């Protein structure tokens, strides 16, 4: 079995089965040299064996990686074109998170995924079944980063991310908070903390404590250090929003 097959099987769990597994299997059989469909089926059988033995666990780093690639392809194609800047953003993110070799394997998969029609709802239902709320929030944050890579989030891209968020059971408050991290508006800092400008100083402090807890990188520790590091960006934006509001209001 080649290096790609080993990469695919090493970190993935639930994404080897269900609708996502069908997408990956199609890509492996159609677009990737050096790995056979039989190799992939071996990995699926190992996964199914673990399921029957009652060893199903939480999402792994590999599951997050594959889910991200599939949802990224949906967002990138949502405005009717594939922008090189968005592709570069995905590659840069993966190199930063996983290193060059693992990112190269991921992009082999991505280049096949982006050619295939995806049932967003089916994919999201599978993700929702296995991923924690904090992990799903991180997915949505990354998708906004992709959409903004070409300088702006288009209406079609925002609509697609909103649809993905709803399928992932991300409520409107959480969605608006993450969205505000990518829009420079007068009330963005308040939206990030899920409050309005009418909030009292005590309510601001309480909101910050709640959001800092919700978005703390430790929430993703089951995915590995690379994902904790990636979550720092979101956490820092929450901190910056709070500091901005404190400065505007003169809160100590």
Describe this protein's structure:
Residues 190-248 form a coiled coil. InterPro entries: DjlA_DnaK_co-chaperone (IPR050817), DjlA_N (IPR007791), DnaJ_domain (IPR001623), J_dom_sf (IPR036869), TerB-like (IPR029024). With 252 residues, the chain is an all-alpha fold. It has two domains: 1-170, no CATH class; 171-252, Helix Hairpins. It contains 13 helices and no strands. The chain has helices at 3-11, 18-31, 37-52, 61-77, 84-98, 100-113, 120-130, 133-148, 155-167, 172-180, 188-192, 201-214, 225-249. The longest helix has 25 residues, at 225-249. The model has no long low-confidence stretch (mean pLDDT 84).
Write the layout of secondary structure elements.
Blueprint: H1 3-11, H2 18-31, H3 37-52, H4 61-77, H5 84-98, H6 100-113, H7 120-130, H8 133-148, H9 155-167, H10 172-180, H11 188-192, H12 201-214, H13 225-249
Helix pairs in contact: 2-3, 2-6, 4-6, 4-8, 4-9, 5-6, 5-8, 8-9, 8-10, 12-13
Pfam family, one: TerB
Domain J: 188-250
Transmembrane segments: 7-32
């Amino acid at each position: 079995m080649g290096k790609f097959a080993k990469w695919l099987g090493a970190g993935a769990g639930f994404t080897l089965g269900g609708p996502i597994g069908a997408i990956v299997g199609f890509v492996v059989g159609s677009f990737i040299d050096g790995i056979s469909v039989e190799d992939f089926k071996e990995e699926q059988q190992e996964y199914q064996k673990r399921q029957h033995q009652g060893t199903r666990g939480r999402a792994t780093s590999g599951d997050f990686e594959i889910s991200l690639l599939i949802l990224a392809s949906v967002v990138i194609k949502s405005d009717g074109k594939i922008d090189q800047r968005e592709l570069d953003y995905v590659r840069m993110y993966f190199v930063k998170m996983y290193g060059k070799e693992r990112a190269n394997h991921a992009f082999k998969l991505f280049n096949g995924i982006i050619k295939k029609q995806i049932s967003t709802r089916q994919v999201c239902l599978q993700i929702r079944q296995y991923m924690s709320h904090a992990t799903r929030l991180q997915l949505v944050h990354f998708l906004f980063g992709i959409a903004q890579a070409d300088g702006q989030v288009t209406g079609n891209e925002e609509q697609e991310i909103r649809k993905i968020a709803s399928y992932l059971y991300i409520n409107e408050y959480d969605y608006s908070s993450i969205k505000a991290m990518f829009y420079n508006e007068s009330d963005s800092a308040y939206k990030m903390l899920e409050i309005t400008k009418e909030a009292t100083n005590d309510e601001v402090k309480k909101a910050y404590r709640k959001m800092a807890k919700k978005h703390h990188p430790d929430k993703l520790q089951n995915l590995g250090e690379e994902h904790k590091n990636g979550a720092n960006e979101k956490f820092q934006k929450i901190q910056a929003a709070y500091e901005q509001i404190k400065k505007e209001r003169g809160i100590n």
